[in-house]
Amino acid sequence: MNVTETKIKDLLILEPKMFADSRGWFMESFNQKTFHAILTAHNQPTVNFVQDNHSISHRGVIRGLHYQINPYAQGKLVRVVSGKAWDVAVDIRSTSPTFGQWVGIELSEKNHRQFWIPAGFAHGFIALEDNTQFLYKTTNYYSKECERSLLWNDSDLAINWPIEDNMLINQTDKDNTAPSFKELINNNIDLL
């Protein structure tokens, strides 16, 4: 597996090895032993996944920026199995040197990339094609009481979402009315 570090050291891009022939292709999409070795090599604690989630989104759908607070904070290993998405993680760890910074990468059925996002990050994506299927493994269970959101288009975060002129943006009221980054900081709202 090829591992690429990002500008935020704990966020990793994983690219599984592909084995292709005239029949198609094969890849090992997850191996706990390999994943633990990757985390250890990057000075991160090992984790266990407890839940898999699968969503489908139409082009222009934005989901996020979402996170969960303790005791249900989640790390996520995300990938796209059909279509294409631009995926974003924002560092909301208040003691981190990269607090408030973000990383965005393209995930698609063609590039087979996976994105490791540890607990302490708000996460979201925009579907760049219809019928984009997004899979993610989580290190903790979903908890409605611990679920939080951060405003996806916050001007202080200045996330460079790849929104095209003819793209109809679609998201929930919860995502449109989420607190801004300044509100989270000024009110010390549920930062990790």
Automatic annotation (TrEMBL):
Active site as annotated: H66, Y136
Superkingdom, natural source: Bacteria
Listed NCBIfam families: rmlC (TIGR01221)
Chain positions of site Participates in a stacking interaction with the thymidine ring of dTDP-4-oxo-6-deoxyglucose: Y142
Keyword Isomerase among record annotations: yes
Family label: Belongs to the dTDP-4-dehydrorhamnose 3,5-epimerase family.
Organism for this UniProt entry: Snodgrassella communis
Substrates-to-products reaction catalysed: dTDP-4-dehydro-6-deoxy-alpha-D-glucose = dTDP-4-dehydro-beta-L-rhamnose
UniProt function note: Catalyzes the epimerization of the C3' and C5'positions of dTDP-6-deoxy-D-xylo-4-hexulose, forming dTDP-6-deoxy-L-lyxo-4-hexulose.
SUPFAM superfamilies registered for this protein in UniProt: RmlC-like cupins
Protein name per the record: dTDP-4-dehydrorhamnose 3,5-epimerase
Description of how the protein assembles with itself and partners: Homodimer.
GO CC list: cytosol
Record-level Gene Ontology MF annotations: dTDP-4-dehydrorhamnose 3,5-epimerase activity
